[in-house]
Amino acid sequence: MNYLTDEKLTILGSAGAIGSNMVQAALTMRLTSNVAMLDPYDPGNEGAAEEIYHCSFPGANVTWTSSAEEALTGASYIISSGGAPRKEGMTREDLLKGNAEIAAQLGKDVKRYCPDAKFLVVIFNPADITGLVALIHSGLDPSRVATLAALDSTRLQTKLSQHFGVPQSEVTGCRTYGGHGEMMAVFASTARVGDRPLSDLIGTDELTLEQWEEIKAHTRQGGKRIIQLRGRSSFQSPAHHSVLMTRSVIDGRRYPWPAGRYIDSEEAGYRQTLMALETTIDQNGVHGSIPEGTEQEMADLRASYEHLTKLRDEVIGMGVIPPLDQWSSVNPNL
Amino acid sequence: MNYLTDEKLTILGSAGAIGSNMVQAALTMRLTSNVAMLDPYDPGNEGAAEEIYHCSFPGANVTWTSSAEEALTGASYIISSGGAPRKEGMTREDLLKGNAEIAAQLGKDVKRYCPDAKFLVVIFNPADITGLVALIHSGLDPSRVATLAALDSTRLQTKLSQHFGVPQSEVTGCRTYGGHGEMMAVFASTARVGDRPLSDLIGTDELTLEQWEEIKAHTRQGGKRIIQLRGRSSFQSPAHHSVLMTRSVIDGRRYPWPAGRYIDSEEAGYRQTLMALETTIDQNGVHGSIPEGTEQEMADLRASYEHLTKLRDEVIGMGVIPPLDQWSSVNPNL
Fold it and tell me: What does the alpha-carbon distance between residue B178 and residue B303 come to, in Å, rounded to a whole number?
């Protein structure tokens, strides 16, 4: 059986529902024959690895460990689902600090054990912040670090296809940008339903303004809705997309959704932040452009950006990342 | 994006961990663009479907429902993970009766809504019995019904590769036959480690008789070990294999592991039973031969068969399937 590469892919959080799904998805898509499963919880990680062994992917070399050194040494590709979930009694700030610290350790481990990694995908929340923190500490070029941002756009696509009663694939150009959270900017001007621009439909009987507001709210709450329905957070869709993103770096196949990437553009006025923008992922990593939208959409994106800079500054205040003017001393690529 | 077919695949139990993984695996492997998700638990099924929508498989048409009529009408391929788990206080007989009744209903639904189905894979335990019950009531040709039996063989392969410290793919010909349970027949004579027959290694310093007995016990207990390690039953490996089995019927690609199939051979002395045998799955469904092994292995297979006939006769006693001489009145293909 052929794999796209034999380079090492390391999955962090592999004992969990997302991480173990990533391992299965990566091997099913034949990304690489060489997968390392890293998780601090040994019995669960062994159990997840045993399940993968029982799949018996021909020619696969799958290892499991709780040692970051063992898992990350020589890794070319890394996907991390390994954050901590929000627990009873935790404040938002507790969660932010806890996961930012996990992201900082991830970045430091990458710098120490696989400084030549070709791609790092960070998916644990708040992903725009954890991705940024990991990037700073990793020393990687910003084109080599991306966060999962697609699910907001695919939730918008899903909801529009359900509203209009058309196949999902006929709803194209669905885009949310900025942060992956309540403050995301939901764009209408990029989307089409069949061959009709969504903007032409909003405010008509086919899609009233009120219905459009509901769809935007639903898009922003898409993750919560999965928890209500399934009794657990999304795990299949984040695994699927983060593996697709990684595949695009391996073989250059187009990844058709926005990803979170680092932006520091004086011209655009987006400085030292990581957020969802119009992106391409290919063998050169993640790159792209500032999206174009209506005045309102661009204002929403600006507001989302400003919200993210506040979170970023909180994390600076916590001492997890250095002040803005000292980032280049930790990561010369910034 | 291309799929192998547009024919309908129906997954039963799609709200659960195994069933929802099957849907993702089937679409990732591009089996078909047309997937129906059937589960009595609506919120969980909707949540699982939403996750699949958020994956946004291009061109896929995925529906979810709690109506067997809606899900099964027009289905060409069916995979059922939809049994009930053993609950506190349930006896083995309670579980057998409950799942046999679910299998009988599955068979009747197939007969009613998709009598021309090309393949039905049954994976809920005891699979040799539930598969047999579903076959009888479905009216399908026996070549069109198979049960998942591979995991015992892949667990044997896994354990041997770990014992000898060789890549899993270098351990070949691992085979367990008969029932998928404690009474399975673990064959040594078919297996090789690299280019060396396993039989030549058993009883040497490389694999003492005691170690081989431990490996056989581990193989028989492989499912329990996953529960100990993960705190839940296997769900990734059964999903992966049942989708692979179905793929082989769609495109004829070789499925390299044993499957459970119906056998009624006066010559071989295996009558009106379903169990793991040496099998091929291709566009003609499942077929194969009686395995050949040592005297002891064949005696183990015979004992496993006899155990299964007792379970079968219990289910006849429960009234879930008719007496042996009346099967053909329910299913003329038997």
Answer: 9
Burial B225-245 (b: 16+ CB within 10 A, else e): ebeebbeeebbbbbbbbbbbb
CATH superfamily of B5-148: NAD(P)-binding Rossmann-like Domain (3.40.50.720)
* pTM tops 0.95: yes
B110-141 pLDDT, tens digit per residue, is 999 999 999 999 999 899 999 999 999 999 99
Nearest residue, CB atoms, B53 vs list A51, A52, A158 = A158
Give the domain ranges of chain B: 5-148, 150-317
Tokens of A38: 């890293």
Which residue of B3, B22, B56, B229 is the best one to mutate when testing the A interface, meaning the one whose CB has the most A CBs within 10 A? B56
Structural fold of domain A150-317:
L-2-Hydroxyisocaproate Dehydrogenase; Chain A, domain 2 (3.90.110)
Q: Determine the Cα–Cα distance for residues A305 and A264; give it in Å rounded to an integer.
A: 12
B59 contacts A236? CB cut-off 8 A? no
Q: Which residues contact A43 (CB under 8 A, 6 or more apart)?
A: B228, B229, B230
CA angle, B234 then B51 then A296, to 5°: 155
The pLDDT tens digits of the residues spanning B60-91 come to 999 999 999 999 999 999 999 987 776 777 77
| Residue pair B194/B201 in contact by the 8 Å Cβ criterion | no
On whether ipTM exceeds 0.95, the answer is: yes
Which residue in the set B28, B54, B154 is minimally distant from A158, CB to CB? B54
Q: Taking CB atoms and an 8 Å limit, are B54 and A257 in contact across chains?
A: no
